[in-house]
Amino acid sequence: MKNSKKLYDLLILANGVALAVLLNLLSSDYFFRIDLTEEKRFSVKEPTRKLLQSLDDEVYVEVYLEGELNAPFRRLRKAVVELLEEFRVYSGNRVRYSFSDPNSATGEKARNEYIRSLMEKGVVPTRVVERTSNATSEKLIFPAALVSYGGMETAVNLLKGSASGSRDEKINQAIEGLEYEMANAIYKLANTDRKRIGILLGHGQPDSVRWASLNNALLELYDVYKVNLKRKASLSGYDALLLIKPTTAFSDADKFKLDQFVMQGGRLLVLLDKLDATIDSASRDDYFAFPYPVNLDDLLFKYGVRVNNDLVQDRMAALYPVVTGISGSKPDLQLMDWPFFPLINHMADHPVTRNLDAVRLRFASSVDTVKAIGVRKTPLLFTSAFSRKLGAPVRVSINELRNTTPVQFNERQIAVAWLLEGTFTSLFKNRFLPEGVASDNFLEQSKPAKVLVIGDGDVALNEINPRTGLPVQLGFDPYTQYTFANEELLLNAVAWLTDENGLIKTKNKVVKIRPLNRASLQEHKLKWQVINVVLPAVLLILSGWFYAWMRRKKFT
pTM value? Predict the structure, then answer.
């Protein structure tokens, strides 16, 4: 009897070992991971997986989110660890990572030099102030990383999102965007098949120094070309075209080239100033803004959108210095909200605009849609709930600030940007073609194409440093020293238009905040302490006693 029991136990052990070995062999050939969270927060999107699996060299990520972190940043750090671990697994161990604390350098001088070198590489710290009942502490935290691949490196800001949210909301937005930021940095370094972006010239566009910041940002991911529409017979060969603030008329031949580019499935980003309004003319009381003679209305109308002959004003606006008096021989300057410079905080839940910080527009026009069969329309940017439209001609004067009252801003969420996707109908369908254009392969209906229209050309223009004459970063406000998200918006727009291997779609990831009810927690504090601390210990003791009692009963 004893021998048979022993043999039975040995067989059970042998079967268990064999099963474990078999499962290990199968798992080495059939890899899978199961994410049981509701919003799939631990799942890596398919475009990211393809990127990681295509790597032919090691990627090294050094994360500087380390040291004495408060609870929100510890949560962000945990999310970074989880994401990089997924990257390591899906890349076949080609992604390696480590964490370091810049504040841990020995000696103040060495620490300052190290931090300065990191900032030169693009690793920007954030100052965190912690207030308790006893004291207030302040520290520098580095929510950033350096990604290295193939002898090159790039910095990644891990704390991107809207600055208007609460601390928890900012951290949540940062976690939602982690996959895209990390994957996009790797793509930037590893991509060899760069897409071709054309910036259209020849119709009174601003000098290239005014869009130099955008151009430099695009060059990190794409091959960028200046394209004179008047000298080009065809626009084929470009993955996307950017039209930045034209001010002179498009001929029918020029519109035909644009139209056929879209018909061939092209991607077009139109940044259009409808009225001739500039801040230089705002000091005059007699200046009125009239429409530019751009002659693109019929083309955009055919595609399903209309940029109106108006200017949008918004009480949520950027600041501008205004002379409010004279002190001796010097004017008194005061920063005041300038309604013609709306700050856009209301955006669609779309990868182009998701979790963006505020975008600053200048002399923007409202944008409406019209019927266009086969075209899907998505509004992207809206003014605040306290805005209005002024039809042309519009008086543009600083002195008008004295005459505006809050009750005048009675319109809400005026759309100033639309994304159009689908099959477009040619403007020249059932029409005579312009003279001198090549009519071969004329298309009346487009292949699947995308057109994004923003009713502001200045959204892509950077400021010029008056001391050095050099361009500053796009979106930087010299009066408040704040950088708005104009550059990120346009990079997202180009990524969506060119599809970018689908990486931009990873911005759709949602991480829900499930906060505890603090009032209820404080009220029932003792009860939850007993449930979480005492109850498990009692259950463990009872289960041990029950197991011992069962053994005595069975074997006595």
Answer: 0.83
